[in-house]
Design goal:
Elements: E1 24-28, E2 35-40, E3 43-46, H1 47-52, H2 72-76, H3 79-94, E4 108-110, E5 115-117, E6 125-128, H4 132-143, E7 159-161, E8 167-169, E9 174-175, E10 178-181, E11 190-193, E12 197-198, E13 201-207, E14 226-234, E15 236-237, H5 238-244, E16 258-260, E17 265-266, H6 267-270, E18 274-275, E19 295-296, E20 299-305, E21 312-318, H7 326-334, E22 345-347, H8 362-365, E23 373-374, E24 380-381, E25 389-398, E26 401-413
Parallel strand pairs: 6-22, 8-16, 9-26
Antiparallel strand pairs: 1-2, 1-5, 2-3, 3-4, 6-7, 10-11, 12-15, 13-14, 13-22, 14-16, 14-17, 18-19, 20-21, 20-25, 23-24, 25-26
Bound molecules: manganese (II) ion (MN).
Length: 416
């Protein structure tokens, strides 16, 4: 794609949705039902309307995929198709005599007049645990510094299978979960609303191609199967999690809700921000060896807004810190013959950095509540309160070429 392209549309320099990005999502307006769109500046390009104008006629695809309530069938058409669609949209947004500036202006919808929806029917969801800093922090809190990392951690990307039904789009409130926990010093467990509700700053990749049961995807092949990425908030109830997780891992402390950003940023749009990951020592087994650059430089931040206060940034991290990259994760996930399907979501695990203000969860930022955060209005936070809003943002930027993810924002409501 031509990187020098200039659009005729007035796009603020700080916009996540530059001409280089063109992420896909599902939206609706008062006048129209669910349909596919692509974000550009403050607008959405309405793919259903553009198809009606005939702009995709020469791509020989069934444009009914743009009138559906999820993107799965569009994604299933494959990367050559999504690449052609993005190229056509770039053309329409850069050519001086574009019909979108004239009689076809209704193909551009203001984002503030649209409602965003879940972009996918998520089939299966897996959550990895691939940040060395996060695993080390959590491990030292629960098992001490000497035993922070389990013996397997540097040999395989640890993960658990999560729950797809409770993944919701940005803007959807989540109720504080109830559950069983064992308070410190108690003899019997108690039942009630979680007292240690937390977020996890993550990204997730979307599977764009089915694989066959019994076959494996190599590290080299993995990107063919990855359509794009979203921001991911893996809501976690630490008190429920701590009591239940032995010996089979996360369950009700996790599956009450996860939130994603509405725009899927394609791997293609992230190409300029590709980089090598951290050196892996000990060297992984050969099926996990990684010769390419499969990490991405995406700046991430978390902000917290109390019920009546201002939003403030409480953590800054980066997706590039991930120890096990997305290709290694997918290779490991399928090495035993497990198949993946279009619309599956694979989350990274909490993305913590080295610095104390780069930790991707309250558990780490407050060191399990020992050192609460002080908010601007004088309030303290060990974990998340009812009516708090947590937002995560992410963007890649290189020499003024910006590709962003928008945000995933969630308000926490009291337990039902
Ligand atoms: Mn997680």
């Amino acid at each position: 794609m031509n990187t020098e392209k200039k659009t005729w549309l007035d796009i603020p320099e700080s916009s996540d949705f530059s001409i280089h990005n063109l992420p896909f999502g599902i939206f609706s307006t008062i006048e129209g039902g669910y349909r596919a769109g692509v974000a550009i500046g403050d607008y959405i390009m309405d793919l259903k309307v553009l198809a009606e104008y005939g702009h995709f006629n020469d791509l020989s695809i069934d444009t009914a995929v743009f009138s559906q309530s999820v993107l799965n069938d569009f994604i299933r058409l494959g990367k050559p198709v999504s690449r052609q669609v993005r190229q056509r949209l770039q053309q329409l947004m850069t050519q001086e005599d574009s019909p979108l500036r004239q009689d076809q202006a209704k193909a551009l919808v203001l984002q503030k007049e649209a409602t965003m929806h879940m972009p996918l029917a998520v089939g299966d969801y897996t959550d990895f645990y691939s940040s060395l800093e996060h695993a080390t922090n959590v491990g030292s809190m629960f098992r001490g510094k000497e035993n922070a990392l389990m013996p397997n951690w540097k040999h395989l990307p640890v993960a658990y299978h999560g729950r797809a039904s409770s993944i919701v789009v940005s803007g959807t409130p989540i109720h504080r979960p109830k559950g069983q926990s064992m308070p410190a010093g108690a003899e019997k467990p108690v039942m009630g609303p979680s007292k240690a509700l937390d977020f996890e700053l993550e990204m997730a990749f979307v599977i764009g191609k089915d694989s066959q049961l019994g076959s494996s995807i190599t590290v080299e092949e993995a990107e063919e199967y990855i359509f794009g990425l979203v921001l991911f908030n893996d809501w976690s109830a630490r008190d429920i999690q701590k009591w239940e997780y032995v010996p089979l891992g996360p369950f009700l402390g996790k599956n009450f809700g996860s939130s994603i950003s509405p725009w899927i940023v394609t791997l293609e749009a992230l190409e300029p921000y590709r980089m090598a990951g951290p050196v892996q020592q000990p060297e992984p087994l050969s099926y996990l060896q990684n010769k390419g650059k499969h990490n991405f430089d995406v700046a991430l931040e978390v902000s917290l807004q109390p019920a009546k206060g201002e939003a403030q940034v409480i953590a800054r991290s980066n997706f590039k810190n991930m120890y096990w990259n997305i290709c290694q994760q997918l290779a490991h996930h399928t090495v035993n013959g497990c198949n993946v399907r279009v619309g599956d979501l694979m989350a990274s695990g909490t993305l913590s950095g080295k610095a104390q203000d780069s930790y991707g969860s309250m558990l780490e930022l407050t060191w399990n509540g020992e050192r609460p955060l002080h908010l601007a209005d004088g309030q303290e936070r060990a974990f998340i309160h009812d009516h708090d809003t947590v937002s995560m943002r992410g963007y890649a930027d290189k020499e003024g070429r910006r590709v962003g993810f928008g945000e995933v924002r969630t308000k926490i409501l009291p337990a039902l």
